[in-house]
Design a protein that fits this description.
The protein is an alpha/beta fold and about 230 residues long. It contains nine helices and eight strands. Bound molecules: the ligand CC(C)=CCC/C(C)=C/CC/C(C)=C/CC/C(C)=C/CC/C(C)=C/CC/C(C)=C/CC/C(C)=C/COP(=O)(O)OP(=O)(O)O, SN-glycerol-1-phosphate (1GP) and magnesium ion (MG). Ligand L4TTDIOY binds next to strand 4, helix 3, strand 5 and helix 4.
């Protein structure tokens, strides 16, 4: 159940509808884990509804926390984003401070996994919400990765291209400067080829939107990854 071994993860958005049949295919696909997360309209009700539907499947389920009001107990892990390329302290440590001030005495710290986000698609909702500076040079991104590993000692550095397929060359360069911190890549993976190319340079790939657009293509991404393990 160690997230450090995960290679392929599906990200389900609690705001989007998914049929029981599609959910079953996702959960029985051989993916390593399910991440529940989204950047707007996430509520306690839609998180709990999705979580309950996932309980029958034997795979790790993680809540990627985007608002404190939508946190439900019972997840295997809670991934906590901190947006390194936002200049607004709210999204770097402000909401986190508020949450810890409120719940610090009862938190199980082993379940909380901080993620250093570097948002690279300026048009995605998460970029707009957090005011992320996405007009970055290669050196900027490498510096965020080094900051994550050597300064903040974050277990995950997440290159977030949500909605578009990013620069695999840049992901490769980031991977070369990380050693302890796991590199997550997410954005625009909608085929076996894109999954394999991204996994070739990242530790873990995250597949989201295509689940809702073309379930066959979504399943192909995990089948391709499974074949590389044979
Ligand atoms: C009941 C119980 C167990 C209580 C304890 C509570 C608990 C576990 C507290 C944790 C402590 C803690 C430190 C919490 C932090 C709280 C918090 C709100 C942090 C802020 C997180 C953050 C920076 C959010 C910004 C948005 C973001 C980066 C979201 C990540 C997910 C993401 C990018 C999804 C993609 O969204 P999507 O909707 O698909 O967007 P696109 O359309 O653009 O693709
Ligand atoms: O939805 P897509 O573009 O697959 O991106 C996955 C994930 O990184 C979104 O947070
Ligand atoms: Mg999305």
């Amino acid at each position: 159940m160690d997230f450090k071994t995960w290679r392929h993860v599906f990200k389900l958005d609690p705001v989007k509808e998914i049929t029981d049949g599609h959910l079953e295919r996702i959960c029985r696909s051989g993916t390593d884990a399910i991440l529940i997360g989204g950047s707007d309209d996430v509520t306690l009700d839609n998180v709990v509804y999705l979580m309950e539907r996932l309980q029958r499947y034997a795979l790790p389920v993680v809540l990627e926390v985007s608002t404190i009001d939508s946190v439900a107990p019972g997840f295997d892990y809670y991934f906590i984003p901190t947006v390194l390329n936002s200049d607004d302290p709210l999204w770097i440590k402000g909401l986190h401070h508020r949450a810890i001030r409120e719940y610090g005495d009862i938190l199980d710290w082993d379940e909380l996994i901080p993620e250093g986000y570097c948002i690279l698609n300026g048009d995605c909702k998460a970029a707009k919400l957090t005011g992320a500076k996405t007009d970055l040079t290669t050196n900027d991104v490498l510096a965020y990765a080094r900051l994550a590993e050597h300064f903040f000692q974050l277990p995950i550095f997440y290159m977030e291209y949500s909605g578009i397929y990013g620069s695999i060359d840049l992901v490769r360069k980031v991977k070369e400067v990380l050693s302890e911190t796991r590199l997550f890549y997410g954005g625009g993976i909608d085929s076996a080829d894109k999954a394999l190319a991204a996994l070739d340079v990242a530790d873990t790939i995250v597949v989201g939107n295509i689940i809702y657009e073309n379930i066959e293509k979504a399943i192909e991404t995990v089948e391709a990854v499974a074949e590389t393990a044979d």
